[in-house]
């Protein structure tokens, strides 16, 4: 009986979907995208764990609303998906990220910029064509752009996801499975996807030293990634202990508050100039 009731509980929760705040925010998000004043990217460094050299940065979107202040992506990204404007947002973020990376390459020529994209993007027939235009217009090498897609997003529509990833791969743009280990996808399906990297979710990394279970899961994901010939990155590194544990397990790259919080471009450029002295 409980399993039959579940959808109704979810449905009544989702009445909030069309609450006034949500509807107002959807309209304002469209305007913010159009005016390009309230949206900006922050950058969180990713380092190579073996020698702590900078590998790249993840670009994370921020919306500074003129009345409500900073709105979290966990609130406005689902709104953008509802409103059908997520692909316009993704393309804006990619274009912006390519520009920032071009600047960063002045001092760090091999710097890789990662961008989060959404399930809907992979289902849009035009997405790859528009991505192609953007990377062709950027002087930075295509392999210095990486697109992160969550495991659950891939499962939304596995056929479309697979095709789009194969085309992105042809372009030379890199791809990563974000929040790896948190979905319900089968390993046999995931292992067939044409991606370059597995990104270990922060829920396993945050208490990797305190919880044997999380250590074991992380170890298993890293073995899988090595066996599949994929690179690996961990998010949510909050202390030195997590950093060295992951390094010793063979994880290639890492990001987290211990290394740095997400930073504005000027702060990030400054961080790049001094980071080895800090970690
Ligand atoms: P994500 O891609 O898994 O990004 C990692 C999130 O973890 C970021 O939150 C980051 O600030 C946070 N984080 C980083 N290091 C640490 C740490 O050491 N400890 C803890 N507790 N958290 C850490 P943020 O920026 O709030 O983003 C949340 C999610 O929103 C992202 O998760 C991503 O799924 C989505 N998102 C952000 N920007 C974009 C975007 O441009 N497009 C799309 N489609 N989604 C985005
Ligand atoms: Mg991500
Ligand atoms: Mg290019
Ligand atoms: Mg994640």
From TrEMBL:
Keyword check for Repeat: no
Identification of the protein by name: EAL domain-containing protein
Gene Ontology molecular-function annotations: cyclic-guanylate-specific phosphodiesterase activity
Range covered out of full length: 552 to 830 of 830
Higher taxonomy: Bacteria, Pseudomonadati, Pseudomonadota, Gammaproteobacteria, Alteromonadales
Span of domain EAL: 22-276
Keywords: Membrane, Signal, Transmembrane, Transmembrane helix
Keyword Transmembrane helix among UniProt keywords: yes
Organism this protein belongs to: Saccharobesus litoralis
